[in-house]
Fold:
Amino acid sequence: MKRFDSVLKGHGKRYVLQSLLAGLSVMAVILALDVIGDPAVVASLGASAFILFVMPSRQVARPQNVLGGYAIGILSGMLALLVADSLPFSADAWEGGWVSAVFGGIGVSAAVLGMAVLNLEHPPAAGMALSLVLGGGAVIQAETWLHALTAVAGVMGLVVFQQLIHKYLVDLL
Structure:
């Protein structure tokens, strides 16, 4: 079993540089948006940074895929919350987790379907749909919208930075 990518030999500096750029871009976005306490947004941005800086020439890293995928993921999560909110579930059902799990799965399913049908695949965006449902509770609150807008601003920051340096990036996978 190989432990290291065979491409790494002779290209170690490139791997280190692109990894550092991914980390620095996420750090800058987190600090600029002050989202240290928002693990759902931070986790999805980290996953998107991996794709943008490790696979910059792949379809999944195209700006339209990243931004479109997040738009679909956020819309899917919000719609799942709206449907759940329209049904007569008790607060205990939400707190017990089964309603969150069911509608979180529905949000992810809708996001995956939407991204696949529209050819805007970006896997971290499906996670955003899930995090909105799990973090939203029984209703869409102002905080849920804030999470969504923060994610959009963060991913836009990552995409802009990646596009500024795109000509210097290579696919590492």
